[in-house]
């Protein structure tokens, strides 16, 4: 597709951002749908974020993804935010309508759609979520919206879990019965009553990272999801034990597909995007 005066610009803002897989699969989606658009990575230092957001308006960039470390801070500079952004406290997708910027969070949707590939029915399952940061909040928002009834949330700083319970009280009036705070060093006590384990922390990104708990205690009955885009130590153990398991690529795929639909109003070519990601 030739770039010309009609070409629309989309992209991703992060720091660093050169490793992002989004340009490849979003560009493939635009080409497949014959949309005259390009998708570019923009490396933006934290101190330049406000200028970058103003640049989206000034340059008529149609849509942008936001990644680490800007997902929370960017909210300050937007004109409007969706419900999920308000609960999760993070934004990863911005749509520009004639200079009016609307922020969305498609991570919750991405996680749920990915999970459905290995667990089509999960509402009656018990979850153990590792971590209580922004990614954890997106996962929890998605699960609660889908009707999950029991979720252990383990974190080193237990106060962060209580903060999530407080912040989500308007999302579900039974939130204190759904989310159960667990100290990270007590995780193993909860494994026998857990069906699905989800790591939302960055532990496992580096091969030398110490495990979050004794992974040998993972059982075949567990479904294990790690939102990192690689086969971490946790996932290797899950595979050895015969568990159903999933890395972070399905979540990345579906959050990107949702962003594509928000920007273009067209159905995302998910299988085209998946093929590019797998390659």
Automatic annotation (TrEMBL):
It holds the Pfam family SDH_C. Residues 116-202 form the Quinate/shikimate 5-dehydrogenase/glutamyl-tRNA reductase domain. Involved in the biosynthesis of the chorismate, which leads to the biosynthesis of aromatic amino acids. Catalyzes the reversible NADPH linked reduction of 3-dehydroshikimate (DHSA) to yield shikimate (SA). Its EC number is 1.1.1.25. Transmembrane segments: none annotated. Homodimer. SUPFAM superfamilies: Aminoacid dehydrogenase-like, N-terminal domain, NAD(P)-binding Rossmann-fold domains. HAMAP family: Shikimate_DH_AroE. Keywords: Amino-acid biosynthesis, Aromatic amino acid biosynthesis, NADP, Oxidoreductase. Pathway: Metabolic intermediate biosynthesis; chorismate biosynthesis; chorismate from D-erythrose 4-phosphate and phosphoenolpyruvate: step 4/7. It comes from the Bacteria. It is an enzyme of class 1 (oxidoreductase). It comes from Persephonella atlantica. Belongs to the shikimate dehydrogenase family. The active site is at residue 71. Residues 248-278 form the SDH C-terminal domain. NADP(+) binds at residues 83, 131-135, 155-160, 227, 248. This is Shikimate dehydrogenase (NADP(+)). It catalyses: shikimate + NADP(+) = 3-dehydroshikimate + NADPH + H(+). GO terms for molecular function: shikimate 3-dehydrogenase (NADP+) activity. The keyword Amino-acid biosynthesis applies. Residues 12-94 form the Shikimate dehydrogenase substrate binding N-terminal domain. Shikimate binds at residues 20-22, 67, 92, 107, 229, 255.
């Amino acid at each position: 597709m030739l770039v010309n005066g009609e070409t629309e610009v989309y992209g991703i803002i992060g720091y660093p951002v050169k490793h992002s897989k989004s340009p490849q699969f979003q560009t493939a989606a635009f080409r497949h749908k014959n949309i005259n658009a390009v998708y570019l990575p923009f490396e933006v230092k934290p101190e330049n974020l406000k200028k970058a957001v103003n640049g989206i308006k000034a340059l008529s960039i149609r849509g942008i993804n936001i990644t680490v470390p800007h997902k929370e801070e960017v909210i300050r500079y937007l004109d409007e935010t969706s419900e999920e952004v308000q609960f999760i406290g993070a934004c990863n997708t911005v749509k520009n309508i004639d200079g009016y910027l609307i922020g969305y969070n498609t991570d919750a949707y991405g996680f749920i759609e990915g999970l459905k590939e290995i667990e089509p029915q999960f509402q009656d399952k018990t979850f153990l979520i590792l971590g209580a940061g922004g990614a954890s909040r997106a996962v929890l928002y998605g699960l609660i919206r889908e009707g999950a009834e029991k979720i252990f949330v383990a974190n080193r700083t237990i106060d962060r879990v209580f903060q999530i319970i407080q912040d989500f009280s308007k999302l579900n009036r039974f939130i204190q019965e759904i989310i159960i705070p667990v100290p990270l060093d007590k995780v193993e006590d909860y494994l026998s009553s857990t069906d699905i384990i989800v790591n939302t922390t960055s532990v496992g990104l580096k091969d030398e990272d110490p495990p979050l708990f004794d992974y040998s205690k993972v059982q075949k009955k567990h479904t294990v999801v790690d939102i990192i885009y690689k086969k971490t130590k946790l996932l290797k153990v899950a595979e050895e034990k015969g568990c159903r398991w999933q890395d972070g690529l399905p979540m990345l795929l579906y959050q990107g597909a949702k962003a594509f639909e928000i920007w273009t109003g067209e159905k995302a070519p998910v299988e085209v995007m998946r093929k590019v990601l797998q390659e």
